Amino acid sequence: MSMASGATTLADVTCSAAAALGVPGYQDVLSLDAPRHVVLCLVDGLGWNALQSHLRAVPNLADLPGAQIDAAFPTTTPVGLASVGMGELAGRHGFVGASFELPETGAVLSPLQWGHHPTPLAVQPETTLFERLAQQGVVVSTLSPQAYVNSGLTRAVLRGGEYRGVETIDDRVTGLRAVQASGGPSFTYVYWGELDRVGHEMGVGSSAWGAALSRVDRLIGGLRESLAPDSVMLVTADHGMVDCPEERRIVLEDHRSLTGGVRRWAGEPRVRHVYTEVGAQDAVADTWRGELTDRVDIFTREEIIDAGLMGPVDPLLAERIGDVVAVAREDWMMASRVDRTVSGLIGQHGALSADELLIPLLIART
Q: CA–CA separation, 242 vs 50, rounded Å?
């Protein structure tokens, strides 16, 4: 269970966009050439496999050439958005899961529920890719719901340029037209989150998910029709998703042996960061392997780093990764009372199955 060696990843998408728009230090591995405008539309939760099984129902998406690429691991939204905003994988940007421990404070950070504390600049002080684009004179705009404008995650990894709060498909299309009408070279980031929410609540195999995908298709059609000349639009995702039935849920608190030597666990039901007492890492790893065999893969922090699953890891950020990392196989999940609501959802992601890891990269040009 590993990411494809040498595969194009989500981090490569914005790095290529930056290179194409003239930002030094980046490589255009996607061969975008030198467009005047780049639009990146990220559809939260749109896995490659799920898209392929619904192509007949989404003519606008089906019409775009493209291929599968790898999401960032863990395959979850904070990791994916940080990889977009920083052009790096988790080992370098430090957002290593849906929740994780900050060793400098001893507290668990849940980026999707993050407000002002801890200070976003303290958690992620490096210049974002969006800021680097703006420094080169590119008009940088984010089209995303107003609720996220001051979130900790936005201010940590997506800061830079102008944030335009938008709610509907038409808002996003109108916003894109306004950005590109300014005349200068532009980079526009468009975020759409509904598909992920529906997948979590109703499942990827549900009719509600199919209806939500149809709305994604309408968004992509509207954006494509609104592209100015000399534009490239990239359509991708932060992760895919799997449905986890009730009988495949391991409730961690029901297994007393799993608590021995453990200070806390974080992450999410498909990937758990397990933080151990001093000196207990190996014993905890052995216990978890014995208890969860054939259902969950168990790695030590060092094994995660050596396997390159999070890309090169900054030593200053390594302790954010659990001493032990548990990665669910197939459609298993590790439910817990620490995130009761999330653990009750049918649609899950975070792990390394093809349904979670493989995401689309579709390209439109004018």
A: 9
Cα separation, 120 vs 228, in Å, equals: 34
At residue 113's C-alpha, the angle toward residues 108 and 119, to 5°, is: 65
Rounded to two decimals, the pTM is: 0.96
Pairing of strands 186-192, 37-43: parallel
**CATH number attached to the domain at 246-346:** 3.30.1360.180
What is the DSSP pairing of strand 358-365 with strand 231-236?
antiparallel
Task: State phi, psi for 299 to the nearest 5 degrees.
Answer: -125, 145
Q: Is 142 helix (H, G, I), strand (E, B) or coil?
A: strand
Task: Say yes or no: domain 10-243+352-365 is CATH 3.40.720.10.
Answer: yes
Rounded Cα–Cα distance for residues 259 and 265 (Å): 9
How far apart (Å, rounded) are the C-alpha atoms in residues 303 and 261? 19
Domain regions of the chain by residue span: 10-243+352-365, 246-346
In degrees rounded to 5, what are phi and psi of residue 155? -75, -20
145 exposure class (CB count in 10 Å sphere: 0-12, 13-18, 19+): middle
Write the CA distances from 199 to 68, 93, 166, 193, 240, integer angstroms.
Answer: 20, 27, 22, 10, 10
pLDDT tens digit sequence for 157-167: 999 999 999 99
pLDDT tens by residue, 275-334: 999 999 999 999 999 999 999 999 999 999 999 999 999 999 999 999 999 999 999 999
Are the beta carbons of 75 and 350 closer than 8 angstroms? yes
Give the span between the Cα atoms of 343 and 98, in whole angstroms. Answer: 13
Phi first, then psi: give them for residue 148, nearest 5 degrees. Answer: -100, 0
Cα distance between residue 39 and residue 185, in whole Å: 11
Q: What is the DSSP letter of 101?
A: E
Q: What is the CA radius of gyration of the chain?
A: 20
Burial group, residue 13, by CB count within 10 angstroms (0-12, 13-18, 19+) = buried
Q: Is the dihedral of CA 244, 245, 247, 253 positive or negative?
A: positive
- Residue count (the chain): 366
